[in-house]
Automatic annotation (TrEMBL):
Species whose genome carries this gene: Dothidotthia symphoricarpi CBS 119687
InterPro entries for this protein: HET, HetReg/Transcr_Mod
PANTHER family: ANKYRIN REPEAT DOMAIN-CONTAINING PROTEIN 39 HOMOLOG-RELATED, HETEROKARYON INCOMPATIBILITY DOMAIN-CONTAINING PROTEIN
Pfam families (UniProt xref): HET (PF06985)
Record-given protein name: HET-domain-containing protein
Heterokaryon incompatibility domain mapped to chain residues: 29-113
Length: 114
């Protein structure tokens, strides 16, 4: 799955959708690398027209990485891997090297300036 991040300004709510892709077709996407942070510190976004919670660090990364005027296709583990399906999570973790090397770029989120 690839995350299609909808355009928006910094203060706009985050909206996205998950798109099923085949890595063998060489989809164009950027991978997001970030620290999960506190797993209990979560904020809400809208994904596939449903409200879901993601970690604060990923929320801020998506806020900063989205374009103001067009969609952006990203891969972020917390959203693109079904974290509740152990079998899928295990198989996807084995593909992470291929996912990161197949990305057009890897965007690194180190957090807000201190």
């Amino acid at each position: 799955r690839i995350l299609r991040l909808e355009p928006g300004q910094e203060d706009d709510p985050i909206q996205c959708s998950l798109i099923h892709v085949d890595l063998d077709t060489s989809p164009v996407f950027e991978a997001v690398s970030y620290v999960w942070g506190d797993a209990t510190d979560k904020l809400r976004i809208t994904c596939n027209d449903r409200r879901i919670k993601i970690t604060r660090n990923l929320f801020h990364a998506l806020t900063m990485f989205r374009y103001p005027d067009r969609t952006r296709d990203l891969w972020a583990d917390a959203l693109c891997i079904n974290q509740f399906n152990l079998k899928e999570r295990s198989s996807q973790v084995q593909l992470m090297s291929r996912i990161y090397s197949g990305a057009k770029a890897v965007l690194v989120w180190l957090g807000h300036e201190q």
